[in-house]
Amino acid sequence: MARRVVYLLACALALLASTLTSAAIVEHSFHVQNLTIQRLCQKRVITAVNGSLPGPRIRVREGDTLVVHVYNLSPYNLTIHWHGIFQLLSGWADGPQYATQCPILPGHSYTYRFTITGQEGTLWWHAHVQWLRATVYGALIIRPRVGRSYPFPKPYREVPIVLGEWWNANVIDVENQALASGGAPNISNAFTINGRPGDLYPCSSSQTFKIKVVQGKTYLLRIVNAALNNQLFFNIANHKMTVVAVDASYTNPYVTDIVVIAPGQTTDVLLTADQPPASYYMAAHPYASAAGVLVDNTTTTGIIVYDGATSPKPIMPVLPAFNDTPTAHKFYSNLTGLVTSPFWIPVPLKVDEPMFITVGLGLAACGANATCAGPFGQRLAASMNNASFQFPTKLSMLQAFFNNVDGIYTTDFPNQPPLVFDYTNANNSFNQSLVMTTKSTKVKKVKFNSTVEMVMQNTALIGVENHPIHLHGFNFHVLAQGFGNFDTVNDRKKFNLVNPQQRNTIAVPVGGWTVVRFQANNPGVWLMHCHLDVHLPWGLATAFVVENGGTPSSTLPPPPPDLPHC
Ligand SMILES: *[C@@H]1O[C@H](CO)[C@@H](O)[C@H](O)[C@H]1NC(C)=O
Ligand SMILES: *[C@@H]1O[C@H](CO)[C@@H](O)[C@H](O)[C@H]1NC(C)=O
Ligand SMILES: *[C@@H]1O[C@H](CO)[C@@H](O)[C@H](O)[C@H]1NC(C)=O
Ligand SMILES: *[C@@H]1O[C@H](CO)[C@@H](O)[C@H](O)[C@H]1NC(C)=O
Ligand SMILES: *[C@@H]1O[C@H](CO)[C@@H](O)[C@H](O)[C@H]1NC(C)=O
Ligand SMILES: *[C@@H]1O[C@H](CO)[C@@H](O)[C@H](O)[C@H]1NC(C)=O
Ligand SMILES: *[C@@H]1O[C@H](CO)[C@@H](O)[C@H](O)[C@H]1NC(C)=O
Ligand SMILES: *[C@@H]1O[C@H](CO)[C@@H](O)[C@H](O)[C@H]1NC(C)=O
Ligand SMILES: *[C@@H]1O[C@H](CO)[C@@H](O)[C@H](O)[C@H]1NC(C)=O
Ligand SMILES: *[C@@H]1O[C@H](CO)[C@@H](O)[C@H](O)[C@H]1NC(C)=O
Ligand SMILES: *[C@@H]1O[C@H](CO)[C@@H](O)[C@H](O)[C@H]1NC(C)=O
Ligand SMILES: [Cu+2]
């Protein structure tokens, strides 16, 4: 009862605060249920929000409070994650299942309520249960509050470009089949732009995303990679793009003819219609960093049609080769943060928690009497610092944190890998004395407001691959990225402490490393994981438990009364 009063009081205060700053309360309902849909010549039943793929586009202004009532009318357990939102003192609304909440059971509902401050640009929302986000996702657009403008000329129109991935199958079945066998899951059948595969696929010419443009005008494309398991190259025939933001964080303008984007990331680009009136394809296909692995090598397209275009036949751009790591690396590493942005945060110079984290694949024991499809008859797995993350099931970690419940997680996630070896040497890929890993629920506990530095070091175990690592609840500064094993002496000299890009998801270079820093100024439990959905259930995750700071403004409030039970 007391908790409820405190909660209502907190709501009343939030309401008061928002009226004072003229921020709005934006309220929506999500009805999540079966949808029968036709794609690639087949009729399929998918889980979708409000009968559309992608789901509803949400628009707010910085400073607004977003309230979303989620009704789970689907046959599956469900949660929704608001990807990239800081969730300051509202960790109960973050959404990853068994991290900040138990799932919303079929027939039940939960209301997500949080205020969006200190960030502007493109984010997105998606299911955070199994592979459901394949069809349960949508854009979340944060525009400047009234009276403030973009740090670039106002575009004529804004166009969300949400890239997705499609299976001619039930995605939960695809995932469960792989987890049962211990092997790799089936690859997808198509990529999509705003839910549409585009006319290079069979039966899809009427399912092609099109935009009309006026010559001379500038458009803001808000690109989201909502695909499950693939980074994507994206380009537009005969046009250059100017990147102005990534992960809802402004960048210095960067002119490019190719964008590469990892699952979880967003990229805002300005596109000027400066070509002769005609039709031009936009296209996306994978950046597949791992050699010798089967990938969905198809191409999704949309069409940009100029006003007054005479020929209906669009011009096709040339996409980079699937394994074009130099092009991907150039794009990823050339971006810099806009220090004149009102939301710029200087790089914290004093590090309280230095961490070195190996990131990569491995094998877990197959289990007595079982037959497994992974190498050496074992089960494919993944780990950070050789800890392969297993989600709890009895209670969420955030509830365990708030109520001091033991036995849900342990706080012994190591600051260093247990073994120093030649991490990126592919000769070690199948070294049986290195590849085995074990399951645990180890998290890293840090004091409120401490500065965490992470050197993320990819390994070559089982395969060499670029892993997009997503941190919930924070943006980090990306200080440097490179190939090979991180060299503490020489690579530290390359840190950009002046204007590094700020992100929530970093694509750690294939056979390489990256260094990030963030200030743990938000109490709660914050998952950090690979955003390739094939690797998350294998264990490529951990979490930060950020302690309360001892004042009301640095203490996690109690959960909302309708938080789902396990
Ligand atoms: C979703 O659908 C419900 C039921 O039709 C409707 O009340 C709600 O406004 C819709 N939400 C959005 C965001 O479109
Ligand atoms: C939803 O679809 C699943 C199969 O994908 C089916 O088992 C279930 O009965 C359907 N539920 C409803 C309410 O139609
Ligand atoms: C995965 O692919 C195999 C081989 O094509 C097929 O037999 C199986 O049914 C697929 N699994 C699912 C869940 O669609
Ligand atoms: C895609 O992969 C298939 C199967 O490996 C192959 O036959 C085809 O040539 C590839 N297509 C492209 C465009 O690389
Ligand atoms: C951009 O990338 C290229 C190729 O990786 C590199 O040579 C160049 O120094 C980078 N420029 C900046 C400003 O980072
Ligand atoms: C494995 O098989 C043996 C012999 O059939 C049986 O005794 C044992 O209980 C099984 N173990 C497990 C974990 O299923
Ligand atoms: C396997 O890795 C260990 C640890 O780094 C190393 O000592 C050993 O030589 C490696 N074995 C092979 C066959 O490379
Ligand atoms: C990998 O092993 C081969 C064969 O033993 C050797 O020639 C090569 O130098 C090794 N590569 C590295 C990077 O250690
Ligand atoms: C990981 O831990 C397992 C034991 O669980 C051990 O066999 C293996 O050598 C370790 N590998 C690394 C790379 O630390
Ligand atoms: C967190 O630490 C920074 C210095 O690193 C300081 O400027 C800031 O005021 C602190 N914030 C809080 C809420 O204590
Ligand atoms: C759904 O969630 C409940 C509560 O956590 C759990 O007991 C159940 O096993 C889950 N169902 C599936 C299919 O994961
Ligand atoms: Cu990964």
TrEMBL record:
Binds 4 Cu cations per monomer. Lignin degradation and detoxification of lignin-derived products. This is Laccase. The lineage of its organism: Eukaryota, Viridiplantae, Streptophyta, Embryophyta, Tracheophyta. Its cofactor is Cu cation. InterPro entries: Cu-oxidase-like_N, Cu-oxidase_2nd, Cu-oxidase_C, Cu-oxidase_fam, Cu_oxidase_CS, Cu_oxidase_Cu_BS, Cupredoxin, CuRO_1_LCC. Residues 32-145, 158-309, 412-548 form the Plastocyanin-like domain. It catalyses: 4 hydroquinone + O2 = 4 benzosemiquinone + 2 H2O. PANTHER family: LACCASE-7, MULTI-COPPER OXIDASE. It comes from Ilex paraguariensis (yerba mate). The keyword Nucleotidyltransferase does not apply. Keywords: Apoplast, Copper, Glycoprotein, Lignin degradation, Metal-binding, Oxidoreductase, Repeat, Secreted, Signal. It is found in: Secreted, Extracellular space, Apoplast. Residues 1-23 form the signal peptide. Its EC number is 1.10.3.2. Belongs to the multicopper oxidase family. Its main location: secreted. GO terms for biological process: lignin catabolic process. One of its GO terms (cellular component) is apoplast. GO terms for molecular function: hydroquinone:oxygen oxidoreductase activity; metal ion binding. SUPFAM superfamilies: Cupredoxins.
